[in-house]
């Protein structure tokens, strides 16, 4: 990638819109002040009662409970409500939590493959050190959520709504934000590999703190995001291809 090409791409993406592409380039405090930061959750759990065991129930109501290293693999908790709860070290392989609600809760060290959280609601939630693969969150609503540490492979957030969400010190492998709406979303010291932003809508999305940023699809949807100059250089080949710039030696 030549410096001349970098200058061409930088001029396109920092100077306005061309072929639907616009990315704000960080230029000191004045640029940073235009990006609204995410409001983080302030979860203060009350004294919790231990969960008495037993399987999850569809439309179950769980309030002020601690689930400690419970194995919910294959169980059906669709439509359940978790309020002021802590899930610690729980197994969620193929667990059905479609349309579930997690409110003012902490999920620590959960693990699972194929967890179904489609169209669920997460509000004022901390998700810490999760190890998940193929988790379904399409059509979900996330508000004031922190996802810290851990690794999530093939995260499906298609058509989801994310507002005041922080991804921090985690690894996201091929996350799918297709058709999602992201507002006041921050990526802090996390690795983003093979991101799909097809048809996504971004507003006040701060990518500057990402440790690595790899966009596989939907680079044209970066309008409403802010990236660093070094990230711009890394993305230059993808941006050049998007706007039709030919690179020849």
Automatic annotation (TrEMBL):
Xref: SUPFAM superfamilies: Pentapeptide repeat-like
Residue stretches spanning the membrane: none
Entry keyword set: Repeat
Keyword Repeat: yes
Region of interest: Disordered: 28-60
Source organism per UniProt: Streptomyces sviceus (strain ATCC 29083 / DSM 924 / JCM 4929 / NBRC 13980 / NCIMB 11184 / NRRL 5439 / UC 5370)
Full protein name: Pentapeptide repeat-containing protein
